[in-house]
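thought: user wants a sequence for this fold. calling inverse folding tool.
action: design(structure=
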C-alpha cells in the first residue's frame, strides 16, 4: 500500500540507515516485501539528497577555506549559528511517498529485532493490521 508520510529530514537519514542494516543482516524476506522496501529506500534517498544539498550550502555560508584550500570548514565563530540552522533543517518535515508493509506479512519480525534503528523502520514503514 502506498502512503505519503511526513518525516523530519533527520529521520529520513536514520530510516535509510535502518533499511541498509536490514539488507546487510541477511534476513530472508519475501520478494514483494524486499521490492517495497527498496522502492521506499530510493524515494527516501532522493529526499536525503535535497537535505544534504542544503547542508552543503550552510557549510559554504558559514565556512571558510581550510589552510590547504581543499575543504570548507565552519569556524568556531560561526558554529553556533551553523548548528542552529542545521538543526532546523534536520527537524524540517518532508513528504515522501513510501510503500507500507503490513505487519502480518512480516514472518521474520523476530529475526529483525537485532537490526539497528529498527524502531525507525517500524514507525514509518510498517502498518499494524493485526490489531484492527
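)
observation: tool returned 132 residues.
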Amino acid at each position: 500500500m502506498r502512503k505519503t508520510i511526513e518525516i523530519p529530514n533527520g529521520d529520513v537519514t536514520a530510516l535509510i540507515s535502518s533499511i541498509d542494516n536490514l539488507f546487510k543482516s541477511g534476513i530472508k524476506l519475501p520478494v514483494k516485501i524486499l521490492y517495497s522496501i527498496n522502492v521506499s529506500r530510493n524515494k527516501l534517498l532522493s529526499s536525503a539528497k535535497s537535505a544534504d544539498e542544503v547542508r552543503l550550502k550552510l557549510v559554504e555560508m558559514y565556512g571558510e577555506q581550510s589552510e590547504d584550500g581543499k575543504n570548507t570548514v565552519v569556524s568556531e565563530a560561526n558554529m553556533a549559528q551553523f548548528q542552529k540552522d542545521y538543526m532546523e533543517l534536520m527537524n524540517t518535515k518532508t513528504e515522501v511517498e513510501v510503500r507500507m508493509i503490513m505487519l502480518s506479512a512480516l514472518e521474520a519480525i523476530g529475526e529483525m529485532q537485532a537490526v539497528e534503528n529498527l524502531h525507525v523502520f517500524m514507525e514509518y514503514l510498517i502498518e499494524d493490521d493485526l490489531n484492527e
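thought: summarizing for user.
answer: Here is the designed sequence. The longest strand covers residues 2-8.
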